[in-house]
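New here. Invent one.

***
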Amino acid sequence: MRDDSTFPDALPVLAVGHHRDPRDGGCLMEWASLLAGEPWSDHPACTHPLLAHLARSVNDRVSDASRGALMHLLPMLTVARSDDRSWSLEIAAVTVRHGLRRAGAQDARELAVALLTLDRLLAPTDGRTPAELRTTTADALATVPTAAAWAEDFTRAMGPPRHVRGLTRGIVDAAFTSVSASSDADDALVVMLTDAVLTCQDLASVDRSRSAAPERFDRAARGTSSAPSMAGAQG
């Protein structure tokens, strides 16, 4: 049970870095742990690890003036957790789409490769073939046609990734770096994190629907029913 004596007297203020006690201030994830009734920590169990990593990165990078705009995400971060492997892929895909909007030529190539790789890894979740791109992926790549063409050739030559472990965190960090370097970094980072949190909220809704009617979703995945497609889980 939550100990209310740990709460500060005033409304919480977001601060950079790790804090030993809430009365000394707290980062976005530390306040999320407190709101969720967990022990004070910037790695709360209530939030998906990759989303929490992104949240800590954004919290520490934006200016003091912009950090307060993250407060509205707190309630959603306390219930943004799943063991579904696709969550990490979805979170990474969100950040790459934002990164591509601000990437230079070299970064755009790397991010385009990342997005194509993520899209193909997510194909089974959507019921697509790896050759079919999501609309969100195609639209993002259309903004960087030269990089996209290079990435298509590169990924075709390389084949599927051999090591997926750690892949998504590296992709998130690369996208974060591109967005951080933009002239409107504060606003862009807040929007990127908000998009990632809302994507996880949508994914959680799909997970709940699947749990409520697992047989219907299993039939849909096998193509033996006219039940709605799981493509709605796209980020």
Summary: The first helix runs from residue 28 to 35. The radius of gyration is 19 Å. The mean pLDDT is 84. The chain has eleven helices and no strands.
